[in-house]
Write a structure and sequence with these properties.
alpha/beta, ten-stranded mixed sheet, 12 strands
């Protein structure tokens, strides 16, 4: 199956072949064959890319307007991610979602991040730059489609520093008149291992005003056992508690929902799983993609047909929503 990727990495030549690097570069729209990984030679015209993605996303027709309806999920990865890992996650995410009933498209936004945890701060600087690319080359693109009457729902899934890219892109979008003046919105935003401060998602914090203004709902999947997000990590000195570890603040807007995955995660057996097949990267930070219970919950979230408190993969425990396997 063909995969669709928006890539904002630079290009370099290795052994006479053009490949992608780990610095920001011009935006390319890639059509990646199902047996390959991203290469500059896979770039196609933006108009053709959009047409193909919209065709893949369409799952029905609005009887009132006769326009296609459907869904596009845009996956935005975190730091310390090679292109191979990004596409493996992309493909596993798409396969798992399809297996639980999601019929829309999945695309990835691939920004430059190195393959070393030591590059954390540099990657965050690159994330700031590529957030503007997400604004100009994705948010602007889809907002113009909505302004033209497109009824395909756009959703975002941000992993780790991908949450930082999303938040900054929305803030930047409200600072650009050509986008700000359009009536645009994304449907669902989901964060996994979210590497932004919990307090930045409070109702009173200006950092996320634009984020909440332009989405229908934001779902944060919290894992208290996420060691990658611990404050004692030397890369993170001076950073406030992260939303992916401690959850949403008590005064988060009403359209935000927190799902505590801690009780579910604590029952998983990492040793019964294979890295690179069942999950990719650090297990406690990246277990979501490859886990069918998470995929089932995410699919229900994207569909939006069930109230947040009634999704079958959730229950209330001690006053908070927690993830649990669906009942047989």
């Amino acid at each position: 199956m063909t995969d669709y990727v928006v890539c904002v990495r630079n290009k370099k030549t290795v052994a006479g072949e053009k490949v992608f690097g780990n610095e920001p570069g011009p935006t390319l729209f890639l059509r990646v064959p199902g047996d390959a990984y991203p290469r500059p030679s896979q770039a196609i015209a933006r108009s053709a890319w959009v047409a193909e993605v919209l065709s893949q996303a369409a799952t029905g027709v609005n009887g009132m307007t006769a326009k296609p309806t459907g869904d596009i999920l845009v996956f935005i990865h975190g730091y310390n991610s090679s292109q191979e890992t990004v596409l493996k996650r992309h493909r596993r995410l798409a396969a798992d979602l399809r297996s639980v009933g999601y019929r829309g498209a999945v695309v990835s936004y691939d920004w430059p991040s190195a393959q070393s945890g030591l590059n954390y701060l540099e990657d965050r600087d690159d994330a700031k730059d590529t957030a503007r690319r997400l604004r100009d080359d994705c948010i602007s693109l889809f907002s113009s489609q909505q302004a033209a009457g497109c009824e395909i729902n756009v959703h975002l899934l941000g992993h780790s520093t991908g949450a930082y890219v999303i938040r900054n892109a929305f803030t930047d979008a409200d600072e650009k008149t050509s986008i700000k003046n359009r009536p645009w919105t994304v449907s669902q935003i989901a964060l996994i291992g979210g590497d932004i401060s919990s307090r930045s998602l409070s109702d009173a914090d200006s950092k996320s005003k634009s984020l909440f203004r332009h989405c229908v709902r934001l779902t944060n999947y919290q894992n208290p056992y996420d060691s990658v997000l611990k404050l004692s990590d030397t890369k993170r000195i001076g950073l406030a508690p992260r939303v992916g570890r401690v959850g949403l603040p008590g005064d988060a807007p009403r359209k935000a929902v927190n799902v505590n995955c801690g009780p579910y995660f604590s029952g998983l057996d990492e040793h019964a799983l294979t890295q690179g097949v069942d999950y990719y990267g650090s297990f406690d930070h990246s277990w979501h993609i490859g886990d069918i219970t998470f995929a089932t919950d995410l699919a229900s979230t994207l569909a939006g047909d069930i109230d947040r408190h009634q999704i079958p993969t959730r229950r209330v425990l001690d006053g908070q929503l927690v993830l649990e396997p669906p009942k047989a």
